Amino acid sequence: MPQITKREHRLADGRELVYYDDADTTLSPERAPDLREPAPRPATATMRQDPLTGEWISIAASRQNRVFLPPAELDPLAPATPGNPSEVPSLYDVAVFENKSPSFGPLLDDENAPSGLDDLAEVGLGRTRTSVGRCEVVCFSPATTGSFGTLTPSRARTVIEAWADRTAVLSALPGVRQVFPFENRGEAIGVTLHHPHGQIYAYPYVTPRTTALIRSLDAYGPTLFADILERERSSERVILAGEHWTAFVPFAARWPIEVHVLPHRHVADFTETSSAERDELATLYLRVLRGIDALYDSPTPYIAAWHQAPVGVRRDEIRLMLQITSPRRAADKLKYLAGSESAMGAWIGDIPPEQAADRLRDAIARADRDTPVGELPAGIAGLAPASTPTAS
Description:
The protein has helices at residues 117-121, 153-171, 208-220, 224-233, 275-294, 339-344, 353-370; strands spanning 5-10, 16-21, 46-49, 56-59, 94-98, 128-130, 134-139, 178-185, 197-203, 238-241, 245-248, 257-263, 302-307, 321-326, 328-330, 333-334. It is of the alpha+beta class. An eleven-stranded antiparallel β-sheet has the order 1-2-5-7-9-8-13-14-12-11-10. Strands 4-3-6 form a three-stranded antiparallel β-sheet, with no helix packed on it. Helix 2 packs across helix 5 (275-294). Residues 76-206 form the Galactose-1-phosphate uridyl transferase N-terminal domain.
C-alpha cells in the first residue's frame, strides 16, 4: 500500500519545514532549497500573568506585522515562484513550517522560562515568564483558496497524519505542556490569509479551557468523556456516526453552530489514534464540514479546535475531541459576544441544540447528494447521517 511520506527541510533562516506527501502523490521526492536571504527572527515574546484569574497572556508584538489578506499572486503560503518568494520553496501536498512571527517560541528555554506547572500556578503581581514553545503553520494544499472541507479524502488523510506526527514531535520539546491543532476559517473569525491552512500551538502551560475541564473531571469522575459519548449517542443531537467516531451537537451548545466529534475509544491525542481511526476521520470530518457549508448559500466561518490531553497530565481521563464552533446564526447574521458572554463568561444560546442538529443532518444529506460520486470519500455508505432517536 502507498504510504504518506514525511520529508524534513530547513528554511533559509533555520526554521523547520516539513513536507507530507499524499499516499497517492504525483510529486517528485526532490524539493527546492529556500534561496531567500535569511532575515533575523523576532525575539521570543513575554507572558504576563493576570492576577485576577491566574491566566497567562503572551504579549507578541511582532504579530502586528504579519501579512493581511494579500492578493493570490503574493500568497505567502503558496509554492514559491520568481515573483513570489514565499514561505514554501517547492510545490507540495501538505507543508508544515515554524511561524515567522510566533506567539510562543522560538526559544524553548531561557533564564525566565517557566520552571514547571507549580511555578505557573502561583499567583502574584507583575509576574512574567518567557513565552517559550512553538507555533507552526499547516498548509493543507498549494491552492490559494479553500479550507479543510474542500480537500480530497486523500489530502484530508495526509493532514491528519501530519497532525499526529507534529503532536508527537512538539510534545517531546522541552517546556511544551500542551499541543493544539486548529483551523480558523473566514474573515468573520479573523483570518488574514485565504489560503487553506491551519495552525498548531505548542503551549508552555495547560490552557485555561483544559484547566476548567480538569475541574469538571475532579467533580464528576474519570468516566466523564465515556459517559458524555454514551448519552449523546442515544440522543437526537447526533448528526453523523461511524465505527470509530461520532459527531454531535452538544447538550449545552454555546454557539449557533457547534459540533463536537469524539472517538469511541479513549485516546489522549492524535498520536494514540490507529490507522483505521484516521482513515474514517478523514471521511467523517469532510462530511461534517461540507454539511456546515450546505446550511447556507455562502461558506460559513468557523473555528475547528482539536482539544488534546496535556503532556503528562490526566492522559487516562482527557480524551481527544474536536469542537467546531461558528458565530453564524442566520444567513446574514452573526452572534457577537457582548456583555454577558465577553465580560462575565455567562453564555446565552440562540438556537436549541436539537434544532441545530436536525438542520445539520439535513445539510449533510444535501451535501452528500450534491458531491460528484468521484469525489465522495471512501466508505461513505457506512457513514450515513444519523436518524433521530428519542431524546434523552
